[in-house]
Amino acid sequence: MMEKGSGRCILHIDMDAFFASVEQRDHEEYRGKPVIVGGLSGRGVVSTASYEARKFGVHSAMPMAIAKRKCPQGIFVEGNYPQYARVSDQIFGILDRFSPVVEPLSIDEGFLDLTGMERLMKSPEDYGRRLKAAIRQETGLVASVGIAPNKFLAKLASDLEKPDGLTVIRMEEVPKILWPLPVSRIWGVGKKTEERLSLYGYRRIGDLAKAKAETLRKQVGDRLAVHLMELANGRDNRPVEPVHEAQSIGKETTFEEDIHSREEAQRHLLALSSQVGWRLRREGKRAHTIQIKIRLGDFSTYTRQKTLKEGLCYDEDIYRAALELFGAFPLPHGTGIRLLGVSGSGFDAPSELSLFGVEQDQRKERLYQAIDGLKGRFGEKIVSHLGEAGRGNSRR
Ligand code: TTP
Ligand code: MG
């Protein structure tokens, strides 16, 4: 796989029964028992089930009522989503130590590109073992790992020996491992395509790999045929693409002392919104997504964001969005706020017409031109027609 340096080496990692495993880790009395996480109200569905619960036929997306029937002795919990997000951050922190190229796929899985890292490891398999051990040691949780020359095979591999799996697929093993599997295991083949393929007699991946290209093309069309034949032969050229932080313009403030009142927090959000607005306008940008960040006294950190049809660049519009997000955030009793942040992302292309783009509201535009003129001369904290800007002791 890594011998010649030309082929890739891709690792896929996926946590086992992620939410349920976090619950079992955090509650000793749940360990070894069927734990089901999900919505407990009338029409709730299962988010996930521990492997003990899966033996009863409980699985993700199943209506909770059915899960309760299948596994009456189960432990049913709503789940602690901020906790899962924190653990996920911790896991991705570990992944970042094991490869400079990490692509997160979901809260509990991602791809690592190990290509060219031969010297750092005894073997890819050993590296995978070390990664699993680091995760187990630092988070107390178990992951499954797949290693292969491409993404498709790596993801398939991580699933083959779950839970606690470590599976390597080499190119020459494709006929043995891949071909006996049902066509539905091919990425992008859902129920409909599966049915269509079965009409033509393609049930296993090997059936597709051995099909005549021309015949398959006629049956399912060029695009799908190429996709199916590539993957059925274990070929997949998609690179591991690390997500860069969404480009954003933001400001945050860490307070000298944690603040405890919502009113005070709102004043800071206004100041931050004004600073973000000013920066957006200065750069001729409009943000479709507004995010607030809240760090509590215990350092737990939350972000909340909303995306709007209209791009924003005016202080009061940004503040309104920030306030709405903040209003919906329940502040736990007794913990103060240590940090607040506001940022905008998801930019429209900068307009070539004017600093403000095609702005309908002439009055607003003139007002902000005047304000920004003053800010330009005297610094960004000098003025806001909204009154409170610049009162936070912002740090950069
Ligand atoms: P998965 O990795 O699909 O499932 P899992 O980690 O629970 O189990 P496995 O060992 O098979 O990987 O999803 C990760 C988490 O995402 C899962 O713990 C809960 C959540 N999730 C949902 O909330 N709803 C869903 O339908 C699925 C599939 C997952
Ligand atoms: Mg998982």
Order of helices and strands: EHEEHHEHEEHEHEHHHHHEHEEHEH
Main structural class: alpha+beta
Poorly predicted sequence stretches spanning 5 or more consecutive residues:
1-6, 350-359, 388-396
Spatial extent as radius of gyration: 26 Å
Portion in beta strands? 15-25%
Q: Within the CATH hierarchy, at the fold level, what is the topology of the largest domain?
A: Dna Ligase, domain 1
- Please outline the major beta sheet: 5 strands, mixed
Please estimate the helix content.
25-40%
CATH class of the largest domain: Alpha Beta
Number of E-state strands: 12
What number of domains? 4
Structure characteristics:
single chain, 396 residues, alpha+beta, Alpha-Beta Plaits, MutS, DNA mismatch repair protein, domain I, DNA polymerase, domain 1, 4 domains, five-stranded mixed sheet, four-stranded antiparallel sheet, 14 helices, 12 strands, globular, disordered N terminus, binds thymidine-5'-triphosphate, binds magnesium ion
What does this protein structure show overall?
With about 400 residues, the chain is of the alpha+beta class. It folds into four domains: about 10-15 and about 85-170, Alpha-Beta Plaits (2-Layer Sandwich), CATH 3.30.70; about 20-80, MutS, DNA mismatch repair protein, domain I; about 180-230, Orthogonal Bundle (DNA polymerase, domain 1), CATH 1.10.150; about 250-390, DNA polymerase, Y-family, little finger domain (Dna Ligase, domain 1). The protein is built from 14 helices and twelve strands. It has helices at about 20-25, 50-55, 65-70, 80-100, 125-140, 150-160, 175, 190-200, 205-210, 215-220, 220-230, 260-280, 315-325, 360-380; strands spanning about 10-15, 35-40, 45-50, 75, 100-105, 110-115, 145-150, 165-170, 250-260, 285-295, 300-310, 335-345. The strands form three sheets. Strands 5-6-1-7-8 form a five-stranded mixed sheet. A four-stranded antiparallel sheet has the order 9-12-10-11, covered by helices on one side. It has a three-stranded mixed sheet with strand order 3-2-4, with helices on both faces. Strand 10 and strand 11 (about 300-310) form a beta hairpin. Helix 4 packs antiparallel against helix 5 and helix 10 (about 215-220) packs across helix 11 (about 220-230). The chain binds thymidine-5'-triphosphate and magnesium ion. Magnesium ion (MG) binds near residues 14, 15, 18, 108 and 109.
